[in-house]
Write a structure and sequence with these properties.
The chain has 254 residues and is an alpha/beta fold. It has one domain: Rossmann fold, CATH 3.40.50. It is built from nine helices and nine strands. Strands 3-2-1-4-7-8-9 form a seven-stranded parallel beta sheet, sandwiched between helices. Strands 5-6 form a two-stranded antiparallel sheet. α1 crosses α9, α3 packs parallel to α4 and α4 runs parallel beside α6. The N and C termini lie far apart (43 Å). Bound molecules: nicotinamide-adenine-dinucleotide. Belongs to the short-chain dehydrogenases/reductases (SDR) family. Keywords: Oxidoreductase. It holds the Pfam family adh_short. This is SDR family NAD(P)-dependent oxidoreductase.
Length: 254
């Protein structure tokens, strides 16, 4: 799928990995609708210029998500893609000092990371399916953000790991279903990236995380995530699977 002249929604594009993707898509000549719950998305759209706009969107909200898709559909270039980057990563133990894991906090993580991604995907896919196909029959591409926590989840990550395993789980069936419209579905499972999500952790934790990947022995950069999203968008054979982007890290645990 070409990027130039086409429109893409970046959910969670106001920060971190999503912001890097939005920047990259605009740099490649695409248009982006940044759909984020935070106002940082509006500031980024402003700096990216006329081919970027912002729609305040809670990805769990049906009407807000539909509004973001409608705004994308109103852009001059056809809607060809969704990059799902909105997510949260709070830590809580199954049984912690204050008692059992709160059920509402577990549901909130799954609600944003998994159900929110699906909410955006179903609405964006319906709109992309209405677009004329390119010469090879392709209409668009959806990229979801999972995490290596789906398989290497750490203490305190039951909700997060479960939500990301759900994202990986829906990738193949969604790709199979949407194939008839010429829409591909991929997921990326990042290792540990230098974004506000990780920078909010204590310095010692960040240093220990950065030392984990065999090579390169450092945190991933958001631009490296955007680079993979670019490769997925432009390569029509990438479909129905999850790519780990992690410098060979396999998180241990006790
Ligand atoms: N940074 C990492 O190491 C890492 C690793 C693996 C996976 N991920 C995943 O990558 C994605 C992006 O994470 P990041 O590191 O860039 O974090 P980030 O906190 O920098 O960005 C997340 C963005 O999602 C937005 N968001 C949160 N809840 C939302 C909601 N309900 N509706 C709309 N937007 C919402 C935030 O406002 C923010 O702009 C997340 O899904 C995260 O789980 C990150």
């Amino acid at each position: 799928m070409r990027i130039e002249g086409n429109t893409f929604i970046v959910a969670g594009g106001g920060s971190g990995l999503g912001a890097a993707v939005a920047r990259r898509l605009v740099a490649e000549g695409g248009r982006v609708v940044i759909a984020d719950i935070a106002a940082s998305g509006a500031a980024l759209a402003e700096t990216l210029g006329p081919r970027a706009c912002f729609h305040r969107t809670d990805v769990t909200d049906e009407a807000a998500a539909a509004g973001a898709v409608a705004l994308a559909g109103a852009q001059p270039g056809p809607l060809r893609g969704l990059i799902n980057c909105a997510g949260i990563c709070p830590a809580e133990k199954v049984v912690g000092r204050d008692g059992p894991h709160r059920l509402d906090s577990f549901a909130r993580v799954v609600g944003i990371n998994l159900i929110g991604s699906f909410n955006m995907m179903r609405l964006a896919a319906a709109a992309i399916a209405e677009q004329p196909a390119e010469a090879d029959g392709e209409r668009g591409v959806i990229v979801n953000t999972a995490s290596i926590a789906a398989s290497d989840g750490q203490i305190g990550q039951t909700a997060y790991a479960a939500s990301k395993a759900g994202v990986i789980g829906l990738t193949l069936p969604a790709a199979r279903e949407l194939a008839r419209f010429g829409i591909r579905v991929m997921s990326v499972a990042p290792g540990i990236f230098a974004t506000p999500m990780v920078e909010a952790m204590p310095e010692a934790v960040q240093q220990s995380l950065a030392a984990q990947p065999p090579f390169p022995r450092r945190l991933g950069q958001p631009d490296e995530f955007a680079e993979l999203c670019h490769a997925i968008i432009v390569n029509p054979m990438l479909n129905g699977t999850t790519i780990r982007l992690d410098g060979a890290v396999r998180m241990g645990g006790t």
